[in-house]
Design a protein that fits this description.
seven-stranded antiparallel sheet; 191 residues; alpha+beta; binds zinc ion; Peptide Deformylase; single chain; globular; 7 strands
Length: 191
């Protein structure tokens, strides 16, 4: 499975609700897990924290989130189906975000530090999750994907918020005009 990258229009679509978990849905989840771990093999400094179904071209409201966001050796992911934000709280904080679908660009993205969501687990069990800090950020980033929103949209007017990872794994500021603002590959304006 190939991970779709900007400016593919499938990343900009609003995805359909799942409602009923069929074998087709379980198959999509299996493919998402596999593609996340496959991506990680070729990105030694990065951890594949999460993925949303549209990143593989599936127009469904499904995300998977790594069970341990700090430990690459833990390859478990929890799937959340039809996730919805119930409430965000806490102060807004900026932190670095990257995305499997926005190759090599990172951003300092403001997000609320606490979130409450509801979703279905893979077996159909309804759950409510309270998350803060990096898990809250990850959930908000992934749920955004289901509505066609990318992290770059939140910082498009902040020219100091964009970075690129060098071959040592360090983030360096990028030239905003050429690499961000006027880069049709990023925004898909010419597609
Ligand atoms: Zn993403």
């Amino acid at each position: 499975m190939k991970i779709i990258t900007t400016p593919d229009p499938r990343l900009r679509a609003k995805c359909r609700k799942v409602n009923k978990i069929t074998p087709e849905i379980s198959d999509i989840i299996a493919k998402m897990r596999e593609a996340s771990l496959e991506w990680e093999k070729s990105h030694p400094y990065e951890l594949s924290a999460a993925m949303a179904a549209p990143q593989l071209g599936f127009d469904r409201r499904i995300i998977i989130v790594r069970d341990d966001l700090d430990d690459k050796k833990n390859t478990g992911f929890t799937a959340l189906i039809d996730p919805e934000v119930i409430k965000t709280e806490g102060k807004t904080k900026k932190d670095y975000e990257g995305c499997l679908s926005v190759p090599s660009i990172y951003g300092l993205v403001p997000r609320p530090t606490k979130v409450k969501i509801k979703a279905l687990l893979e077996d159909g069990t309804p759950v409510r999750i309270k998350a803060d800090d990096s898990l809250a950020r990850t959930l908000l980033h992934e749920i955004d994907h289901l509505d066609g929103i990318l992290f770059i949209d939140h910082i498009k007017d902040d020219e100091t918020a964009f970075f690129r990872m060098n071959d040592k794994g360090d983030l360096e500021p990028v030239d905003y005009e050429t690499e961000v603002k006027n880069n049709p590959k990023l925004w898909g304006e010419d597609e």
